[in-house]
């Protein structure tokens, strides 16, 4: 007891000393990119355009669902520039149009019209549009040059100059309450046409004069079958509106510009020998290569999921000739270069690839030597959209490159003849959760491990085994030496250290790990933490878009020969039904383990420290009837569960009812409710609950105070931090509540209310402290508050902690500070043994990640400095928390829209691995107490060894001399 | 509450230590506290129920009545009867199989008496039956309220809290509860202490001694300026003749 106290004193003193010397830290210029990497993403592509139609053009432009407008280098797939707009509907990109050097964009459901210079990505101009939701936009040409852009809103149409964004005219649309205006068309004439529909009644066509916005013509056409222009109509040929009606299975044509009262003319699909796939809504695809000219008279009609037909509208304007039938064909797209327009069609070739071919639009003939193969990955998404970049080659034939977007948001750029130039995994722009898994040992190391794993069979065989494994180790070492020697002769640039899945092995200090990332689209990635290269990917196809994920490491790499095992719990947020995906985190392969049937919604999942005979931790799933399912559920596990049942407790939280309740497992795997705490929802609502991380180690039990007594920490592993926000949002009455609840007994350990505060609350719960950040509504600033719990100067029971046997409440200390910046996320560093002092990693909206020493968030910081506080190295209290730029661990590598920070311990006590994810992914290492266990890079080995040798020889020589002298003296 | 050891030293260092504002009333045995008392303070009473069964299926029975009084100073007292012989037997049996002793109180509001009836449900807590037996029914029951006076949680612990397997021979020890009852309202978390900090800074400034009075530029360097002026005047009075002569020459 006494010695442990002393140890605690010593070590905490040591840590304090260490941390005191290491407050300032920063990256040296030559360390940039050595231990860290950043990957930038844009999200799921909504619109993509290529620069000019020449073979040498390198730029392409995308607008994405993450409200980002970006440009890629099409040779490498690297980002040239990227504009990150506001999140949510305010910054959503409605449309992206490209003309020459200008990229036109309507943002925020018709709020803003922007023009970008595509060369440098600069903003040319921005115009604020009138209110009203956006419907459509198109370029308008006057005398063959594109000068204007028309924007159609729900109740108005406006024309803007391309050069400066000034409004030429704006006109209210007649009868906009009844008529839904959905399309705007300009074919290079003197008018611009607006098409509206009264669903299942009639179609309205209005022609506006380009000059002054005067209505030239307005008429309505009977169309009782038409419900939406957007989904069923396109303009083809010389201004002919082409619609498809899935009910009557017919095409309807209507000349828009016709003078006399027009009527739709019907062409039955049957008359063209076409048949619609049952239940499929036919889709029309047309192309208008240049805004100053009318669209092509050729168009695609999609009749089924893999059936497309190329049709041509004849010159008379109401007859149609089929050009070519494509079945099977997944995707089709038009592409124009110069005067030539081609159609690209993707057809399935075999299990592993799709073929893309070009066809002449005029005749429907296949162009020779245009086949490109698109490789289908076994665990990838299906192709979703085709973007074709066609260009004229020197011999005037059409060449092309193609960008394929797959369902998993990946972009693949392919060049003739079928070479994948680059792939961008844009699913990584939305990482939901992640884990870091240790890499496996090398083959020889694993063999050694395996030797100890096997059962002993006598002394002699064990000795033999030992010898043989030593020999293999020696062999491996010699081979390694030989490789080093061999490579040392080669120039450094030729030595490639490419990481592949085969060469993966743990390094000396376990600094390189496998990052398993789960994305919102349902694609899983295995990423090497050292280089950032994607080693495996797996797309889960039938994941609902609103699913919640929980990633659990059931078996780590430490149990050779059993492979590591991760389980992903996918829960549908609406129904609560859950599915499990069990996989090997190193290779990404799905395990063929029998999964438990989960017919009922899952409320809670918990990973027990109980392991089965294969060293996999047991996962318990609690359903809505409070029945428990164990996974894996072998006999061994069930037996263990029965034995331990009375000591397995879990809690459930229903934030909609403000209800926290605790349960105990019974022997028959049913449960009983044992405690209940109810926070009335009329007063406050639960916004977040956090326990402690199970892999967290706390090295010192207490803190040594100035008078050499020890203040013991209250280290309750079952403690939950529950944060609530008041339902009353009035700035004077709003509050944030912090409850510390024991998860086993339901005892409220501490209950504090932060008055005049509101969320969003970010908090970290670790060791014996909780740090939370909130918005002070009175002073209008962000504030940090820290709560620390101490048992006092005596421990109640120093050997073991039990929630059931801690009658005394801990002492709670709290202090609050002003923080000069809002924050987006927060996490604490984590190290192997918990000796290193802790830092908080704070993600700021600016994209910086701040490493804030926990020392600054210490409720024992004294107001008045005394001898004792100085002894303890407590920093005197200052109400404002500093932000020092050298604390930014990502220097200039900003991480856009940081959503989460993940920390993992490494094999070195001083080093903590950090991954920040959001739109970008950034990986680095932090050393909260500096690298106290590592020799510096510039450590002078030569000097120290030469000094050693010199001393050694000096002693040898002086010894000899002394001997000679002694001998001489003896002779004398 | 009162038995929580507090370090005096700590209190002296950190004036911001949070002291839970707890008003507690201790009550034991079956003696009823004065009936007239709680009517005076417009208090009200809610049942405190307990359950201990060998098969762990909750069957709550009356243990006592909690007299609650809301308002500025909330207080609580408890009147409870002794355990019957049958109950004592059951409790010992439950303790022998490591069962749980559960208590529950209805959800009520201490301030708003109107809504009291509308809220349904109970707040439940438990303690191991063996620790209750081994502590000779010495328990600490804590009621927690939220900012608006709703009861949100109840907790029960025994002192001592451990189960050592010691036999309680004397039946008399299990007759009456020795209950310490506390009611805890949430503490107010501190705001950043700007005022104190500024005060401290001011004191430090004063300690350092009054900084030298800021003299004006002229007050500081009057002798230099004066000297310079005299020098200039002297030189200018000497020069004009020479300068004038030069000008005339050119």
Q: What's a quick, concise take on this entry?
A:
The complex is a heterodimer of chains A (972) and B (250). With 972 residues, chain A is mainly β.
Q: Explain this structure to me?
A:
The complex is a heterodimer of chains A (972) and B (250). Chain A is mainly beta and 972 residues long. In chain A, 12% of the residues lie in helices and 43% in strands. In chain A, strands 48, 49, 53, 54, 55 and 56 form a six-stranded antiparallel beta sheet that branches. In chain A, a hairpin with a 3-residue loop joins strand 3 and strand 4 (68-73). Chain B is of the alpha+beta class and 250 residues long. Chain B is built from six helices and ten strands; from the N terminus they run H-E-H-E-E-E-H-E-E-H-E-E-E-E-H-H. Chain B has a five-stranded antiparallel beta sheet with strand order 4-3-2-5-6. Chain B is rod-shaped, with a radius of gyration of 38 Å. Chain B: Belongs to the EMC10 family. Chain B: It is a single-pass type I membrane protein. Chain B: Component of the ER membrane protein complex (EMC). Chain B: This is ER membrane protein complex subunit 10. Chain B: Keywords: Endoplasmic reticulum, Membrane, Signal, Transmembrane, Transmembrane helix.
